Every structure is written in C-alpha cells, then in structure tokens.
Amino acid sequence: MEEKELYRQKMQAKLDEWKAELDKMKAKAKRKDAEAKLKANKKIKELEIKIEEGQAKLNKLAETSGDAWKSLKGGIDSALESLKSGFDDAIAKFKE
After folding, report:
1. Which pLDDT band holds residue 95 (cuts at 50, 70, 90)?
2. Domain ranges, residue 40
3. Which 3 state secondary structure label does DSSP give 31?
C-alpha cells in the first residue's frame, strides 16, 4: 500500500475515534444542568466544526495525485493537532 493511502487511513481512524468521543460527550451533556449544558454544547459545536474541517482536508487529500499530497500533509497534521488539543481540553472539562 502506498504511503499516501496509509497516511489517509491513519488520519481517518483518528477522526472516527474523535467522532465517537464526541458522541459520548453529547450523551454526557444531556445529563448536565442548564448552564453546564450550554457550555458543553458550545464546546461540542466547536469540535464538530473542527472535525468537519479535518474531514474536508482529508477528502481533499484523497483527490490529489502523485506527490502533491505531501504539500497537504502539513495542513492536515496541523488541523488534527488542533482538534486533538480541543478534545483534550473538552475531556478535561467534562470530567469536572
């Protein structure tokens, strides 16, 4: 399997993992009081947007040919690192 496809699969697996984590957060948010629910839902919406952005970048990667994908790799890595940071922050807040 070529390097691009391996990278795409690895990044897609991370996105899928975060989507599952987001579903768990949504379920926990439903059990919070009104004020906490509003804060949780705001953070969830931010993460949903970041997931969509990451998915869009990954989809763009699939459309590239040859070595052109390597120029997108940095942007994808950056987007997913930002998403990871957002999830780490959200998970810490949900444990409070």
Report:
1. low
2. 3-95
3. coil
